[in-house]
Design a protein that fits this description.
Elements (H helix, E strand, L loop, with lengths): L1 H41 L2 E9 L3 E8 L4 E7 L4 E7 L2 E2 L4 E3 L4 E9 L2 E8 L3 E9 L8 E9 L22 E6 L15 H19 L3 E4 L9 H11 L3 E8 L9 E6 L1 H11 L5 H4 L7 H31 L5 E9 L11 E8 L3 H8 L1 H20 L16
Parallel strand pairs: 1-5, 11-12, 11-13, 13-16, 14-15
Antiparallel strand pairs: 1-2, 2-10, 3-4, 4-8, 6-7, 7-8, 9-10, 14-16
Helix pairs in contact: 2-8, 6-8, 7-8
Length: 404
């Protein structure tokens, strides 16, 4: 009897272990399937919402698990911005307080799509929207919404991070005399570009200092060669409010004459960001938080954008001022390019081609002390107007975006 009971117990034990094993297999399969479902869900959702910028311009970055398309439902005129995104689901807990122009935000599912609602802290509008694929250290897609403040308070571009606190000092203007030393620049009949630019830089410095409203520094005050990167760094190290590089143009047609102004192109802005972020301490250099590289890249991009806006505004003011004088301008007087002296991400900068040294009339102006001094006085007056009315809307006849 004991033997039969032992045999039955053994059979029951095997059967129980078999059933337990089968149950474990089923449970593991369910867990694995559920895990796959969760993973699929996470790859199709909005993972995070991030903010950068300030009360003048604010960037909203949505981290996404996949590609998507966005449609604007409300554009800010009603006090909020609403964007509908197809083929993607909202993540959990994506609502709360915003930053800058956004008072609060909410991400929710509606009608088979995901709706992102941004309640505005003040009047604002969408400046641009775009989708970034994974790259530059980011593993997710990023849907970017740039907001710009509207109304009078929004006309002055946001100040770069390194100038967050108002300064009591007079604005600092850094004047760069192009070429120098072993680099003579363009050659006219009677003069070399390096000599003309140095004389003009000294005269512009004197004109600005006579007003008593500016501090002025030259990148060179003699016949020496200064590498392009050093010229830009002089302005950045000094915390310049404006950088002006003076040059004399050259052409194969001696009849070609007139002044023009270059500001940084979009391609040049991309190059500036790439070159600037090569160093190890670029976040510290721009006084960025340094905790999240992707957020700091956003802030750097916004700084670069604000600097470009200021540079373009000064170029328009200057050309408007010169247009009313006796110095001719090129038909396309405002041009853009990726020139090395324009690459500082946090200092508004222009390159001023004062005229064609290969044209007899322009060379006469550039080599005649009185005529050159009048031209530099006009430039100083343009600087005065820029700092007096930094948001004044101006238009220059013959101005063409792009080119150069």
């Amino acid at each position: 009897m004991y033997g039969r009971w032992r045999d039955n117990l053994a059979r029951w034990g095997v059967r129980e272990w078999a059933m337990t094993g089968l149950a474990l297999v089923v449970i593991c399969a369910v867990v694995l399937t559920a895990g796959r479902g969760l993973a699929f869900g996470s790859d199709s959702e909005i993972k995070a919402v991030r903010f950068g910028g300030d009360a003048q311009r604010t960037r909203i970055v949505l981290d996404l698990g996949k590609n998507t398309r966005g449609q604007v439902i409300e554009d800010g005129s009603t006090g909020r911005v609403v964007v509908s995104m197809s083929g993607i689901t909202p993540g959990r807990g994506l609502d709360g307080n915003g930053s800058g122009l956004v008072r609060s935000y909410e991400v929710s599912a509606t009608g088979g799509a995901t709706r992102v609602r941004l309640d505005l802290a003040r009047g604002a509008e969408i400046e641009r929207r775009f989708l970034l694929p994974p790259g530059d250290g980011a593993q997710n897609y990023r849907y970017v919404i740039d907001l710009k403040a509207t109304g009078a308070a929004a006309l002055i571009p946001a100040a770069p991070p390194r100038r967050e606190q108002a300064r009591a000092e007079k604005p600092l203007i850094v004047i760069d005399a192009g070429h120098g030393g072993r680099d003579p620049g363009a050659q006219g009949v009677h003069a070399q570009e390096k000599a003309v630019t140095l004389s003009a830089a000294r005269e512009l410095k004197a004109a600005l200092e006579r007003t008593g409203r500016y501090r002025v520094r030259l990148t060179r005050d003699g016949d020496v060669y200064v590498v392009h990167g050093r010229r830009v760094q002089i302005a950045r190290d000094a915390g310049a409010d404006l950088f002006i590089s003076l040059h004399a143009d050259a052409g194969t047609d001696p009849a070609l004459r007139g002044a023009s102004v270059y500001t940084l192109s979009e391609q040049g802005a991309g190059r500036a960001v790439r070159e600037f972020t090569r160093g190890d301490d670029w976040q510290r250099d721009l006084r960025l938080p340094g905790r999240d590289p992707s957020v700091d890249r956003i802030l750097l991009d916004m700084t670069q954008r604000a600097t470009q806006n200021r540079s373009a505004q000064f170029a328009r003011v200057l050309l408007t001022h010169l247009e009313g004088g006796d110095h001719p301008l090129l038909r396309r007087s405002h041009r853009d390019a990726g020139l090395a002296v324009l690459l500082a991400p946090d200092v508004p900068a222009i390159l001023f081609e004062m005229g064609f040294i290969t044209n007899p009339e322009d060379e006469r102006v550039l080599t005649d002390e009185r005529a050159r001094r009048r031209l530099m006085r006009s430039v100083a007056e343009g600087i005065d107007r820029y700092f007096r009315e930094p948001s004044a809307p101006v238009m220059v006849a013959g101005e063409v975006a792009g080119g150069g």
